[in-house]
TrEMBL record, chain A:
Pfam family, one: ETF_alpha
Single GO MF descriptor: electron transfer activity
InterPro entries reported in the protein's UniProt record: DHS-like_NAD/FAD-binding_dom (IPR029035), ETF_a/b_N (IPR014730), ETF_a/FixB (IPR001308), ETF_asu_C (IPR014731), Rossmann-like_a/b/a_fold (IPR014729)
Family stated for the protein in its record: Belongs to the ETF alpha-subunit/FixB family.
SUPFAM superfamilies: Adenine nucleotide alpha hydrolases-like, DHS-like NAD/FAD-binding domain
The Electron transfer flavoprotein alpha/beta-subunit N-terminal domain, residue ranges: 3-165
Keywords per UniProt: Flavoprotein, Transport
Statement: the UniProt record of this protein carries the keyword Transport: yes
Protein name: Electron transfer flavoprotein, alpha subunit
Lineage of source species: Archaea, Thermoproteota, Thermoprotei, Thermoproteales, Thermoproteaceae
Gene3D superfamilies named among the record's database cross-references: HUPs (3.40.50.620), TPP-binding domain (3.40.50.1220)
Keyword Transport: yes
GO biological process terms, semicolon-separated: fatty acid beta-oxidation using acyl-CoA dehydrogenase
TrEMBL record, chain B:
Name of the protein described by the UniProt record: Electron transfer flavoprotein, beta subunit
Residue ranges of domain Electron transfer flavoprotein alpha/beta-subunit N-terminal in the record: 20-214
GO molecular function: electron transfer activity
Top-rank taxon, per record: Archaea
InterPro entries: ETF_a/b_N (IPR014730), ETF_b (IPR012255), ETF_beta_N (IPR033948), Rossmann-like_a/b/a_fold (IPR014729)
């Protein structure tokens, strides 16, 4: 058994160690190699730009010879490299694996499918490629002896990075939030979102939003966007305010412990997906909640 | 510019047929939403040249799905594609992603293209792996998660929407590009366009027509997730009383 980890993190190296056998890590500079010393048996440092999926896949294909499983993070570049590499080595790619094990010459994995409404149990022959969502597996890779080697590639990448622009970023880390107050189209204008921020503040939580608020109206930066193509969250309380509950939004909140919803439409689908629903005009009830909860917390 | 657009006839996840497992064969198909954005972009970029759709049927049963796929492709043709290629072959039902990508690449090689456009992921499986796989199969560069696309002198300039930043990249054609929903607003076809689409060709192909063979299928079982939400709805009383009730429930749950 031999596992290759591309873009290694502590988490990925831990998952690789649970599969047993030798762990090889592919990195793109000496600093990264140094950081994972003692956590993988072999570290290969390739002279390619880590930001170019084509180039990374090229390097990974070289190192993947004789490898049974390749693991990558479920980032956009990780998934892109996964697809490229899997096709090159004639392997299947399991994206966002929530469990992984090797048994009888096959990689067995589970993942959410169909808008997160079902769990697929997939079994693919080795060699196989998988990407792992961040924060899913927690553990420490065992300490091992590491050998470091270099890989020189002389192919010129076709893709050129012209510029990189940082996205507007606040202190929002929805993936780690314990309480999320999330806003949707029930809010009539941008200024009214202030109420939600107020409510989040008294609850000690963060503010999330549905797709239209971030993508169409652009009332909030995309770091607030919860859903299938936004953030997937798992707070202890998810309070959806003025959110109708489209399947793509629900797909992002499935792992919340308690879901509560406020909507003035009793037929809004969010109520079918919530533990506690309140049919009420958010403009009436949110100020009352802010008032009551701040008193409660003040006690 | 000649453009191939990948169109997935995806399972309609809002209409999943569920017994002990998800009954894929009985669940209706629809166009994978993000593919509409890819079609829109193709219609904008094609100029005087041709843009065509490519669909490989993955979900069975084959005969019934052919009809459903034709309806989906008519929708894309009504949006402005010139023709469509539908690969329908028993061997591709529940096939591996490697096999699906191989079939798509075979169509692109056969018909020719300067650019392949696809959605960032399909709405049923949401893996986003087909665009890079097709690129690997064709030996072309791939640019994924693109929210803005321009063609300048035989080159593509694309804005990639990554986790923490936007990356502007430049690649030579031919290339494979996957787009996000933010790239455009897909048009709604007029009645006239819908009628005209009935006359546009949908070419059906088998693996034999493409001259390729594919590897064995992949084993997958789909178990529905049971939604165990409590679904308590508070609808009586004044706003004040409702707020009080909600707070009581949330306190009982120990979440506030």
């Amino acid at each position: 058994m031999k596992t290759l980890v591309v873009y290694p993190s502590k988490e990925l190296l831990y998952v690789a160690s649970t599969l047993g056998g030798e762990v090889v890590a592919l990195v793109f500079n000496e600093g990264e190699a140094e950081a994972i010393k003692g956590k993988a048996h072999r570290v290969v440092v390739a002279n390619v730009d880590a930001r170019l999926p084509d180039a990374v896949a090229e390097a990974a294909a070289k190192v993947a010879q004789g490898v049974d499983v390749v693991l990558l993070p479920s980032t956009k570049n990780g998934k892109t490299v996964g697809g490229l590499l899997a096709q090159r080595i004639g392997a299947e790619l399991i994206v966002d694996a929530t469990s992984l094990r090797v048994e009888g010459g096959a990689l067995k994995a589970e993942r959410y499918v169909f808008g997160n409404k079902a769990v697929a149990t997939v079994e693919v022959p080795l060699p196989a490629v998988a990407t792992v969502p961040p924060g899913r597996f927690q553990g420490e890779p065992p300490a091992v002896q590491t050998s470091v080697e270099k890989l020189q590639l002389d192919t010129a990448p076709k893709t050129r990075i012209v510029s990189v622009e940082e996205k507007a970023r606040g202190a929002v880390k929805l993936e780690e939030a314990e309480i999320i107050v999330s806003v949707g189209r029930g809010f009539k204008k941008k200024e009214d979102l202030q109420m939600a921020f107020e409510l989040a503040k008294v609850l000690g939580g963060q503010v999330g939003c549905s797709r239209p608020i971030a993508a169409d109206l652009k009332w909030l930066p995309e770091e607030h966007w919860v859903g299938l193509s936004g953030k997937k969250v798992k707070p202890k309380l998810y309070l959806a305010v003025g959110i109708s509950g489209q399947p793509q939004h629900i797909a992002g909140i499935l792992e919340s412990r308690i879901i509560a919803a406020i909507n003035n439409d009793p037929s809004a689908p969010i109520f079918q997906n919530a533990d506690y629903g309140v049919v009420e005009d958010l403009y009436k009830i949110v100020p009352i909640l802010i008032n009551k909860i701040s008193k409660l917390k003040g006690q | 510019m000649k453009i191939a657009v990948l169109i997935k006839t995806a399972l309609d996840t809002s209409q999943l047929r569920v017994r002990d497992t998800v009954v894929v064969e009985e669940t209706p198909l629809k166009i994978s939403d993000i593919d509409r954005n890819a079609v829109e972009e193709a219609v904008k970029l094609k100029g005087q040249d041709k843009a065509y759709g490519v669909t490989v049927l993955k979900w069975g049963p084959l005969q019934r799905r052919i009809q459903e796929a034709e309806n989906v492709l008519r929708e894309a043709l009504a949006m402005g594609l010139d023709e469509a290629y539908l690969v329908a072959d028993e061997k591709l039902i529940n096939a591996s992603h490697a096999a699906t990508a191989k079939a798509i690449a075979a169509v692109v090689k056969k018909v020719g293209a300067d650019l392949v456009l696809a959605g960032e992921a399909t709405v049923d499986n949401y893996t986003g792996q087909i665009p890079p796989r097709v690129a690997a199969e064709l030996g072309w560069p791939v640019v994924t998660y693109v929210r803005e696309l321009k063609v300048e002198g035989g080159k593509l300039v694309a804005r990639r929407d990554l986790e923490d930043h936007v990356e502007v990249v430049e690649v030579p054609l031919p290339a494979v590009v996957s787009v996000t929903r933010e790239i455009n607003q897909p048009r709604i076809p007029t009645l006239l366009a819908i009628r005209a689409a009935m006359k546009k060709p949908i070419n059906k192909l088998t693996l034999a027509d493409l001259g390729i063979s594919v590897e064995p299928k992949v084993s997958a079982a789909y178990k529905p997730l049971l939604m165990q939400r409590k679904k308590v709805v508070i609808k009586d009383g004044t706003p004040e009383e409702k707020a009080e009730k909600l707070i009581q429930y949330l306190k009982q749950e120990g979440v506030i």
